[in-house]
């Protein structure tokens, strides 16, 4: 990698450390020509396999454009979408895979989207989880309702979150 200051093609690694979430390595480098230091970040390449079988690099903007439609008319800001895409990328990278199906990226969006906006979540889930009947919607809404009631109960009683998986 070229030194960003003098374009020398050589550099020496002076420090390497893993980022807190373990998804990347930061290397502190020093240029032997000009002596300046710079940082490089190494992450695994992450490919998304589309339904057609074509692989393309994971892209946060693709996540955002996929979710934006479901968020139409909802009180969701661009910042909300950017944060959601970041959460999705972190979740996918934390799973440690190098390739992921586009469909699985869709599934990874569901959790953060549910926290962001429940109507957008239902729209999105109906597509990605293949809802094909009113019953599927009823089940999903019932689940959201139970979770909302649990959350309200936690707030009013001041008790800790129950240890059940959600
Ligand atoms: Zn240099």
TrEMBL record:
Cofactor binding description: Binds 1 zinc ion.
Cofactor: Zn(2+)
InterPro entries xrefs: ATP-cone_dom, NrdR-like_N, RNR_NrdR-like
UniProt entry tagged with the keyword Thylakoid: no
Annotated ATP-cone domain residues: 46-136
Top-level taxon: Bacteria
Keyword annotations of the record: ATP-binding, Coiled coil, DNA-binding, Metal-binding, Nucleotide-binding, Repressor, Transcription, Transcription regulation, Zinc, Zinc-finger
Zinc finger (unnamed): 3-34
Coiled-coil ranges (or none): 134-161
Pfam families noted in UniProt: ATP-cone, Zn_ribbon_NrdR
Function summary: Negatively regulates transcription of bacterial ribonucleotide reductase nrd genes and operons by binding to NrdR-boxes.
Family indicated by similarity: Belongs to the NrdR family.
Official protein name in the record: Transcriptional repressor NrdR
Organism the protein comes from: Arthrobacter vasquezii
Gene name linked to the record: nrdR
């Amino acid at each position: 990698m070229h030194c960003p200051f003098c374009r020398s093609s050589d550099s020496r690694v002076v420090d390497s450390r893993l980022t807190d979430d373990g998804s990347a390595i930061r290397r502190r480098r020093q240029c032997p020509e000009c002596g300046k230091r710079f940082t490089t970040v190494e992450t695994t390449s992450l490919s998304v396999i589309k339904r057609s079988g074509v692989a393309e690099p994971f892209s946060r903007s693709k996540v955002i454009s996929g979710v934006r439609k479901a968020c139409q008319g909802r009180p969701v800001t661009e910042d909300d979408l950017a944060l959601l895409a970041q959460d999705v990328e972190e979740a996918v990278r934390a799973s440690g895979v190098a390739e992921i199906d586009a469909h699985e990226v869709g599934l990874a969006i569901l959790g953060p989207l549910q926290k962001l906006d429940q109507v957008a979540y239902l729209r999105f889930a109906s597509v990605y989880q293949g809802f094909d009947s009113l019953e599927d919607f009823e089940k999903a809404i019932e689940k959201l309702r139970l979770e909302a009631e649990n959350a309200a109960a936690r707030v009013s009683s001041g008790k800790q979150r129950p240890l059940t998986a959600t």
